[in-house]
């Protein structure tokens, strides 16, 4: 049970009028003392209960190969020994990891963190130029790479090919040579994660062991809350989750989901790359109970015939993140899949993952909201035009403060100072508001708002409307430059197979549901919408495409 908030803090919204600050109303799980030397990996393993012999830690979705918890822990210990004794890795050394989501990758991540080395996972689909930029930022002493991507890495970086004989020797070297105990501070960097670069060039985000431990604690507390509520209602607590992880492990969402799954003794089913049909088959085959996903996946499930043919009865929860989920999409999904609870959440690389989420069936009905502030966090909503913090129901930029806020951007003190102020407030760049009940709503990225005749038009709002049209499979809205009005809302549309939807029909559909200044004024049809690995629309690419096409072709 959450304790009553201190005097001066509204018990409904968590808002303190005196400081203009929102406070978390979640039960605060006890964090270990900051002075205690412990790695995120060691902390995660300390939460595991014994025995776990009957439950896989990891499963390969494509092959069905499973790794039990005893095997996983033994593999981590052995590889950690090899990294220490044979490779000479020490606390603070950065290791680039460039590979698809294969079974070896979580073992490698945990082994590196357990000896105090810094995990720096990168996208295996990146270009040689992008790797050069990332390497210049994080300065790795070694790169672990899948065979198909090793050649793209800069020549001066020492390479170990995952799965090679050299790697296998490393992985077995520590069987008889465990690394010595290392005193790693919680404030030390555990991982360098690369921001998605949707609004600029990729940055290297330093995440500490303390950041990750705070996240683990918040997830653990949420699980205990759900279990307690179930018992109170006379129901069985939910079983340990079987999570399908269609997310890349180099992205903060996927990285965090594996850390969460292992710390709770659950099962993670890994997919090398996302494929909608393969995901449905995996849910059916492995009796998946939890599916983390971006909003377009919910749209696809509602509209897919195959989703209705498959036995998806095991699925209990779909965890939505990566982009705002519209009320219309959530309600349509709930109507088609009434037994699947939608858990909405919000986080960013700079916050090491989750900032807010819905917990339990009642909160999950707050469609359109990303939930309540996670434990140990504070927030402000700051009016961008005045710089003043505002109260419930008022929009502004979300600022957060607490133990999940990043250490900073590696090699970019200027960007760090612009993003995290001297009091520890992280400026998220997202336009948001809290309602009177403490639920957080994301309106859009501040930088992505379309400026039409001085009005601000949130692209996400129009995308939610477009995705509710039965003839539209996917949609994105961007600002199209215009001399007279500044920017026009322009829609890129992927039609449903067999649909003959016209530009005028698209514009009319939106016009009926929004104020005149929000109307879509240009439409073009495409075969796909470019997105980041986490499902975020890459609007910069679409803007460039629209401008290069020229007005005559639109």
Automatic annotation (TrEMBL):
Gene3D superfamilies: 3.30.300.30, N-terminal domain of ligase-like
Organism per entry: Brachypodium distachyon
The reaction(s) this protein catalyses: (E)-4-coumaroyl-AMP + CoA = (E)-4-coumaroyl-CoA + AMP + H(+); (E)-4-coumarate + ATP + H(+) = (E)-4-coumaroyl-AMP + diphosphate; (E)-4-coumarate + ATP + CoA = (E)-4-coumaroyl-CoA + AMP + diphosphate
Keywords assigned: ATP-binding, Ligase, Magnesium, Nucleotide-binding
Name assigned to this protein: 4-coumarate--CoA ligase
This enzyme's EC code(s): 6.2.1.12
Domain AMP-dependent synthetase/ligase: start-end pairs: 54-409
Cofactor or coenzyme needed: Mg(2+)
The AMP-binding enzyme C-terminal domain, residue ranges: 461-536
Family the entry assigns: Belongs to the ATP-dependent AMP-binding enzyme family.
A matching Pfam family: AMP-binding_C
Main enzyme class: ligase
GO terms classed as biological process: phenylpropanoid metabolic process
UniProt-listed PANTHER family: 4-COUMARATE--COA LIGASE-LIKE 9, LONG-CHAIN-FATTY-ACID--COA LIGASE
GO MF terms, alphabetically ordered: 4-coumarate-CoA ligase activity; ATP binding; CoA-ligase activity; trans-cinnamate-CoA ligase activity
